[in-house]
Amino acid sequence: MNRITWLAAAMSSALPALACSPLYYGAETESFAGVQRRFDSVESVVVATLTQARKVTKTLHSQFGEDVDVPAEEDTFVIEQVFKGPAIVGDTLVLTTALSGCGISAIAQLTGPFIPPRPGAKRAEKQPEAPRRWLIYRNQNDDTQLTGSYMARPLFIASSDLYHMPRVLAAASRR
Questions:
Q1: Rounded CA gap, 31 and 114, in Å?
Q2: pLDDT per residue over 10-22, tens digit each?
Q3: Cα distances (angstroms) measured from residue 15 to each of 10, 24, 43
Q4: What is the pLDDT of residues 6-49, one digit of tens each?
Q5: Which of the pair, 165 or 72, is modelled with greater confidence?
Q6: DSSP 8-state symbol, 103
Q7: What gap in Å lies between CA 28 and CA 128, rounded to an integer?
Q8: Is 67 in contact with 164 (CB distance < 8 Å)?
Q9: What one-character DSSP code corresponds to residue 31?
Q10: φ/ψ bin of 90: left (φ > 0), alpha (ψ from -120 to 50), beta (otherwise)
Q11: Which of 63, 72, 80, 161 could form a Cys-Cys staple with 58, CB 3.0–4.6 A?
Q12: Which residues 6+ apart lie within 8 Å of 31 measured at CB?
């Protein structure tokens, strides 16, 4: 192994695994090309309104053959606008996201964490308000979860996607 190859191998093995890190947010992902690439990579693109978010338990199947129960959030959305896919306005979309690993909470997204009631409190703490409108890119048969990527984001963060969407739709209709 030559010196440069060895150095590259040593450097790459020292880097942390980035599988659960948010994908790069930058000019490329916010550009027309980035939005078109996301649009083309999935079967469904919708704007949906979050109507309910509740804490649940989700069973994950581990690589060792055991089932593991993890905290999760079940988010119910009503589809408001369809850019791509078989969904119909008014349909309900339920996403259950495991909050361990890569999953994020719609409730806590940019608003703060869930606040459990204090022992002895006469009433529960006021919970943070979740962003209501989301842009969701997904494949129909996938176990879609909310993660720290640009595939499901509150609408006020996904404004560049909405800006480019008319051109993306026009390009898709010409194919």
A1: 34
A2: 333 333 333 444 4
A3: 9, 16, 33
A4: 333 333 333 333 344 445 555 567 889 999 999 999 999 999 99
A5: 165
A6: B
A7: 32
A8: no
A9: S
A10: left
A11: 72
A12: 160, 164
CA gap 105, 114 in Å, rounded:
9
Rounded CA-CA distance 67/59 in Å is 6
Residue type, 133: R
What is the torsional sign of CA 155, 136, 148, 110?
positive
Contacts of 21 (CB under 8 A, 6+ apart): 148
> Computed over its alpha carbons, how large is the radius of gyration of the chain?
20
Query: Is the entire prediction scored with pTM above 0.85?
Result: no
Amino acid at 76: T
CA distance 50 to 60: 24
Taking only the tens place, the pLDDT of each residue in 131-149 is 789 999 998 776 677 776 7
What percent of the chain has a predicted confidence (pLDDT) above 70?
A: 67
Structural domains in the chain?
Answer: 24-113+126-174 (2.40.50.120)
**Joined tokens for residue 6:** 């060895």
